[in-house]
């Protein structure tokens, strides 16, 4: 039996799952809806959800954005070296999903077990990341807003001067 929510009918299990693992990321260009993937990375997804609930991502900049590659955010210092007060996470790599357009992955240092709060959204496929970085979700709508984020200087590893920000990030639930 379907449950009617607004003008859309969805199965009860889908409605609950969408709410529990759906994040809205609002930018000045519009909203991106991200479907989190606890089936691929349960500990990383839980950390992201905890930080979202705290309002951690609100106002944080997209500090590293490379045309045709990805947009990275989640560093409160805006330098690419910061994180949250939560512990770093052990890698949750998978071969069940690939880094393609719209995939959300966790940023880390050269240590595979150093992901914390930073994440990136892919603009295009990048097979070299498959099995090397943790996938936490995918943009299911609003990729056009992500496409408009100010790009960084290619000669400076994509670092952005006067970067765009996450206006608000919240759980759909």
TrEMBL record:
Keywords: Isomerase, Rotamase, Signal. PANTHER family: PEPTIDYL-PROLYL CIS-TRANS ISOMERASE-RELATED (PTHR45625), PEPTIDYLPROLYL ISOMERASE DOMAIN AND WD REPEAT-CONTAINING PROTEIN 1 (PTHR45625:SF4). Residues 26-173 form the PPIase cyclophilin-type domain. Residues 1-15 form the signal peptide. One of its GO terms (molecular function) is peptidyl-prolyl cis-trans isomerase activity. The keyword Protease does not apply. The keyword Transferase does not apply. This is Peptidyl-prolyl cis-trans isomerase. PPIases accelerate the folding of proteins. It catalyzes the cis-trans isomerization of proline imidic peptide bonds in oligopeptides. Its EC number is 5.2.1.8. It catalyses: [protein]-peptidylproline (omega=180) = [protein]-peptidylproline (omega=0). InterPro entries: Cyclophilin-like_dom_sf, Cyclophilin-type_PPIase, Cyclophilin-type_PPIase_dom, Cyclophilin_A-like. Belongs to the cyclophilin-type PPIase family. It comes from the Bacteria. Pfam families: Pro_isomerase.
């Amino acid at each position: 039996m379907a449950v009617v929510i607004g003008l859309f009918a969805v199965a009860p299990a889908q409605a609950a799952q969408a709410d529990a693992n759906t994040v809205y990321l609002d930018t000045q260009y519009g909203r991106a809806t991200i479907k989190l993937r606890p089936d691929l990375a349960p500990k990383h997804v839980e950390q992201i959800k905890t930080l979202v609930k705290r309002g951690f991502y609100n106002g944080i900049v997209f500090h590293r954005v490379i045309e045709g590659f990805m947009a990275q955010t989640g560093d409160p210092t805006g330098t690419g070296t910061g994180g949250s007060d939560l512990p770093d996470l052990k890698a949750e790599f998978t071969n069940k999903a690939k880094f393609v357009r719209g995939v959300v992955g966790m940023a880390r240092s050269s240590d595979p077990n150093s992901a914390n709060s930073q994440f990136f959204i892919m603009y295009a496929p990048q097979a070299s990341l498959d099995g090397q970085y943790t996938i936490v979700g995918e943009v299911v709508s609003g990729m056009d807003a992500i496409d408009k984020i100010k790009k960084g200087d290619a000669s400076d590893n994509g670092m952005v001067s006067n970067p765009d920000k996450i206006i608000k990030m919240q759980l759909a639930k």
